[in-house]
Amino acid sequence: MKRYRLSALAGLTGLTLAGAIFPATAAHADTLPLAPLCAEQRDTTGTQYAVNLCDVTDVDQFRTHLDAKGNTHCGPTSLYNAMYYLGEHKGLPMRVVPNGQLMTEYDPAVPADYDPVTAWLGWLGYKAGMSASDPSGSSASGNRVAFDAATAGAKASGWTVNRGGTGTDSTPEFGLEIAKRLRQAPVQLWYGRYVLNADKTHTRTGGHAVTVVAAKGDVGSGKVELTLHDPARSDDHKSPGYLDTQSETRGEKVTLYRVAINVKSTPEDPNEQPTIKQHTYWRLMGENYIGDTFPYVEAMNWFEAAPPVG
User: Fold this and answer.
1) Which region, left, alpha or beta, applies to residue 140 given φ > 0 means left and ψ of -120 to 50 means alpha?
2) pLDDT of residue 104
3) For residues 301 and 186, what is the distance between their CA atoms, to the nearest angstrom?
4) Under 8 Å CB-to-CB from 292, ≥6 apart: which residues?
5) What is the pLDDT of residues 107-118, one digit of tens each?
6) I need a labelling partner for 243 at 20 to 30 A (CA). Which of 25, 32, 150, 233 fits?
7) For the stretch 192-228, what's the b/e string if a residue is b when 16 or more beta carbons lie within 10 angstroms of its beta carbon?
8) DSSP string across 34-60
């Protein structure tokens, strides 16, 4: 695999993204260990479905040279995983600038490429609407805008590139929809963190984005089993040097259950009364997703691409 300086990635003499400058760091190993053998599966016919993708990156969001140490970069990082799969498996060319290097010229598993990958995450965050003055996170729609920016050159050269968002409120068979979209590329899943109020309503306190790499379930069951790559979770989290090294791939096994909850708003104006609205979400449950808040899946972003014909 070719190696390029960070300046070549951006087409600039130095790269500053969202207020952060990315210097070189020393490589600590040649590569990370290979992931276990995997077989891809794309079965969405009949009353049962099962889709599994292989060789999906599991990039860390926590990095020294991202704003807020990457604490709010779950969106760009989970997006990166989906985009890298399209680049590696379908050849989709993605660049920061028209004459820049391809995203897939850099391997997240290679320490020498850690800085260029970090730069990509910073750039995707910038295109998604994040900034040094307001690094509070990115929205699902903002991440679709970032995807459009990275694939503008591909579309101009004849590639068919599509992306979209699907909410849970309007999608009763959300699990099946995840599986169908997963046939093309990893799915970016968005969930909110909610607290339960004394009046049995829920209030949203934050959110998170992850990458879906596998889904299986039964139509009409109101549940789906997923395997996630979570950019905020790794075996070496908060160990020495974790902000400057890429962790090994780790699959999170979770189950989503379809539920209806009443959500209470939190008005910014103290004189404004909160509103209560019912939503149909999918509660995310798993061994590593137990805490003081309830994770409810609200939406997903999906992506697909096909090369020019002829």
Assistant:
1) alpha
2) 98
3) 9
4) 195
5) 999 999 999 999
6) 150
7) bbbeeeeeebbbbeebbbbbbbbbbbeeeeeebebbb
8) PPPP---EEE--SSEEEEE--S-----
Give dist(CA 107, CA 84) in Å, integer. Answer: 9
Extract the tokens encoding 274: 């909160």
CA distance 248 to 238: 14
- In contact, 59 and 250? CB cutoff 8 Å: no
C-alpha dihedral sign at 285, 230, 56, 35: negative
First-to-last alpha carbon distance for the chain, in angstroms, is: 28
Structure tokens at 72: 């709010």
- From the centroid of its chain, how far is CA 154? 21
Q: Alpha-carbon torsion 150, 156, 162, 163, what sign?
A: positive
Residue 56's pLDDT band, with cuts at 50, 70 and 90, is: very high
Please report the DSSP string for 160-222 in residue order. Answer: EEEEEEEESTT-TTHHHHHHHHHTTS-EEEEEEEEEE-TTS-EEEEEEEEEEEEEEEEETTSS
Q: Give a three-class secondary structure readout of 233-246.
A: CCCCCCCCCHHHCC
Residue 280, burial from CB neighbour count under 10 angstroms (0-12, 13-18, 19+): middle
pLDDT at 33: 52
